[in-house]
Design a protein that fits this description.
The chain is mainly alpha-helical and 189 residues long. It has a domain of 53 residues. The protein is rod-shaped, with a radius of gyration of 61 Å.
């Protein structure tokens, strides 16, 4: 048989639970809060309500964008009805404007560099043409100098004095001095 002392903690615990339930039921009307709906007005906050829990939306739609950045303007509010294609927010365009300016500057630099390269190419073509002309002028000067040397050598050969008679070379007293004159026959070859 069981001892009454063993049952007493279980009985006491059950009795406490029953009494607490009865007390809560009887005091339940005092614990009910009433809510009043009023128009929104400006004023000071008189009561602060703190609550914890999770608020779940009735319908959840994810909104995505192909751009990223800081939102500068939101054009709709929570629970507003929106249509397909309607603008709901604007991204701050400053970063994109800066990117366009940077790309524009890079394009201008590339155009200027290309123009400089074209000018350098043109200068190189002119330098090549000047070198060709200088080479042709040098060849012409060489040909002219060679021609003058050949002509001088021919003149030396043509203007050789030949003796009138066989035997003796120059007569005594050559070259002539004073009023003496000699007649020499010059043979051109």
């Amino acid at each position: 048989m069981r001892n009454i002392g063993e049952k007493s903690p279980i009985v006491v615990t059950g009795a406490v639970i029953v009494l607490a339930a009865i007390a809560g039921f009887l005091d339940g009307e005092k614990m009910r809060h009433g809510y009043t709906t009023v128009r929104i007005e400006r004023g000071t906050v008189r009561t602060v309500v703190k609550a914890s829990g999770i608020v779940n939306p009735v319908l959840m739609i994810e909104v995505g964008s192909q751009l990223c950045g800081i939102i500068s303007e939101v054009l709709v509010n929570f629970n507003d009805v929106v249509k397909a294609g309607q603008v709901i927010a604007r991204v701050d365009p400053e970063a994109y404007i800066a990117a366009v300016k940077k790309a524009s500057a890079a394009l201008k630099i590339a155009k200027a560099t290309a123009e400089l390269q074209r000018a350098a190419l043109q200068r190189a073509r002119v330098a090549v043409e000047n070198a060709r002309i200088a080479s042709k002028a040098g060849e012409a000067d060489l040909a002219a100098a060679q021609g003058k040397q050949d002509e001088a050598e021919r003149d030396v050969q043509r203007n050789t004095l030949l003796s009138r008679t066989s035997g003796q070379g120059f007569p005594s007293g050559f070259p002539p001095q004073g009023n003496q004159r000699y007649r020499w026959r010059i043979i051109r070859t």
